[in-house]
Amino acid sequence: xxxxxxxxxxxxxxxxxxxxxxxxxxxxxxxxxxxxxxxxxxxxxxxxxxxxxxxxxxxxxxxxxxxxxxxxxxxxxxxxxxxxxxxxxxxxxxxxxxxxxxxxxxxxxxxxx
Length: 113
Description:
Layout: H1 3-28, H2 32-57, H3 62-89, H4 102-106
């Protein structure tokens, strides 16, 4: 095997590990907001690493994979932000461990209510 293919396989494996750890984080986090954050960070990084590994393994696919990478970089954070705002607007409860609610503070609502 070529060095580039071995490197591509290793980078893809690292991406798969990040995706696995993200799935564990989704199961272990205490509320929806933490789950959204964990899933987004892990899937963004894991998918990017996996796609870069595939691009290294098969360099002729790299231009198409670059388009996918940019699409993921722009859509994952935006979609998670929209999901979190929608969850907040319908009143999804925060965990009891949450210390600061900056959105509530910025809206001028009563902090103790």
